[in-house]
């Protein structure tokens, strides 16, 4: 009996090491990678600090980077910088609270932590938040396919950007890609080899940042075709005014800035799995991993936003990549294709974790082919309908940012910490800070959600062009 148990533990540990190295970019792998019955704390980690930084950076990086220039354009450089710095520091603090909760309870799984502290409701809330975050990420990735694939096909066909036909319709293409490529991958029993796409995705985003910086010095402010959404201006002073950076801006789209930034920094479901595999594991060492990762992503996010904004100014769109025209530009076509391939291969990994968590929640862990196929098909149909009918990426960033991102960054870590330490008088000062952090998250929800709904009502489902 003991030899059988030892063999199972060794196999479980090997699988966790392999999957954590390669799948940590999925933003919510904790429930799938680390079932609650495994004594993770008793198993020493094997992942170096450098690899852990890479894994956590992968978990942070996502499609949110494409919406940050739009957020900057609707807040101004100064206000955006203030928000970006604030969310970075607050995210690091929330990781600190999460690590303390993990140490106090011995839980290395977000869902299990929620269940241990708040019972079944806590487990359901964590499951709902992480699943909504993953679904939001999948929607944003498929939205990139919907926006970018038509432009890439037109370029390869030698057609003008204004060319229209059914086979370059983004809605038809996203359905074709979903059921022609993504569905077969989602039907596989395991997705281990797709873990390599985590590194590829990060490389694509670094490549995208380099292109954004390069194009800032190649594209003039009023190049024909780049500002078609703006009224025709008749004098040079008006041109000069539009090409002048703004430092503080308030308009109806400003409300999307904070949710977009929050969406871009969510990585919390992946923190505990990465922590569990850290070599010579300690809370202080994992905090260092998070500090380095968040600083690196802060630099990438800020540079992408500032150079994207200084290229297009107020004409930037909620999908920055879509603003670059690929006509006669091999570099733009290359980065567009790289990002498309990366997001297509990342969607099944995200989908796999959502489906696995759903089956785990329903206690249907035994593999059943009919149920596996049916649930996969139904979920993909729902996701595609949302992608087709959601007008812009800012709506995805807005909804997910004010709901699941807010829960995962602000409300859940502080609530868990306050519950766990409610009888510890020595942590009175820390509890005050955690209480303020919780109040900030609640205030964020109370203010942002009504404003996002108000903007929807006022805009009446605006198109991308109206951004």
TrEMBL record:
- What is the recorded membrane topology of this protein? Multi-pass membrane protein
Report the domain of life of the source organism.
Eukaryota
| TM region positions | 46-71, 77-101, 164-186, 193-214, 255-276, 288-310, 330-352, 373-390, 396-420, 432-454
Is Plastid there in the keyword field? no
Reply yes or no: does the keyword Membrane apply. yes
The cellular component terms of Gene Ontology attached to this UniProt record, alphabetical and capped at eight, are:
plasma membrane
Boundaries of every Amino acid transporter transmembrane domain copy: 46-450
Q: Where is the signal peptide?
A: none
Kindly give the InterPro entries that the UniProt entry links to this protein. Answer: AA_transpt_TM
Any idea where this protein resides? Membrane
Q: Which GO terms describe its molecular function?
A: L-glutamine transmembrane transporter activity
Q: Which UniProt keywords apply?
A: Membrane, Transmembrane, Transmembrane helix
Chief localization: membrane
* Name this polypeptide is given: Solute carrier family 38 member 1
Q: What is the originating organism of this protein?
A: Coturnix japonica
């Amino acid at each position: 009996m003991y030899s059988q148990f030892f063999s199972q533990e060794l196999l479980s540990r090997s699988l966790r090491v392999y999957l954590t190295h390669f799948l940590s970019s999925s933003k919510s792998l904790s429930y799938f990678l680390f079932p609650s019955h495994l004594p993770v704390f008793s198993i020493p980690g094997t992942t170096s600090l450098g690899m852990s930084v890479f894994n956590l950076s992968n978990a942070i990086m996502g499609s949110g980077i494409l919406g940050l220039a739009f957020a900057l354009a609707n807040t101004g450089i100064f206000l955006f910088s203030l928000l970006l710095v604030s969310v970075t520091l607050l995210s690091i603090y929330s990781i600190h609270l999460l690590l303390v909760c993990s140490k106090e309870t011995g839980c290395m799984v977000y869902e299990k932590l929620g269940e241990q502290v708040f019972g079944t409701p806590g487990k359901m809330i964590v499951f709902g938040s992480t699943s909504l975050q993953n679904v939001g990420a999948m929607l944003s990735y498929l939205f990139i396919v919907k926006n970018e694939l038509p432009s890439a096909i037109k370029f390869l066909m030698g057609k003008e950007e204004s060319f229209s036909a059914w086979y370059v319709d983004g809605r038809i293409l996203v359905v074709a890609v979903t059921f022609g490529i993504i569905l077969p991958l989602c039907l596989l029993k395991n997705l281990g080899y797709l873990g390599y796409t985590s590194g590829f995705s990060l490389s694509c985003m670094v490549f995208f940042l380099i292109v954004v910086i390069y194009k800032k010095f190649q594209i003039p402010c009023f190049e024909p075709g780049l500002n078609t959404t703006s009224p025709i201006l008749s004098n040079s002073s008006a041109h000069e005014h539009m090409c002048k950076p703004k430092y503080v801006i308030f308009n109806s789209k400003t409300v999307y800035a904070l949710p977009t930034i929050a969406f871009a920094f969510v990585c919390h479901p992946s923190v505990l799995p990465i922590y569990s595999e850290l070599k010579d594991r300690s809370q202080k060492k994992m905090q260092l991993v998070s500090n380095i990762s968040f600083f690196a992503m802060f630099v990438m996010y800020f540079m992408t936003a500032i150079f994207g904004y200084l290229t297009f100014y107020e004409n930037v769109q909620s999908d920055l990549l879509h603003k670059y025209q690929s006509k006669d530009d091999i570099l733009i076509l290359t980065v567009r294709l790289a990002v498309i391939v990366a997001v297509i291969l990342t969607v099944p990994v995200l989908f796999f974790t959502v489906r696995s968590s759903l089956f785990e929640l329903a206690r249907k862990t035994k593999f059943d082919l009919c149920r596996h196929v049916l649930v996969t098909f139904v979920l993909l149909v729902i996701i595609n309908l949302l992608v087709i009918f959601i007008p812009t990426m800012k709506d995805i960033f807005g909804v997910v940012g004010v709901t699941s991102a807010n829960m995962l960054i602000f409300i859940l870590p502080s609530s868990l910490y306050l519950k766990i330490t409610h009888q510890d008088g020595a942590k009175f000062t820390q509890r005050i800070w955690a209480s303020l952090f919780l109040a900030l998250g609640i205030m964020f929800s109370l203010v942002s959600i009504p404003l996002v709904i108000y903007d929807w009502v006022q805009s009446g489902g605006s198109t991308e062009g109206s951004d």
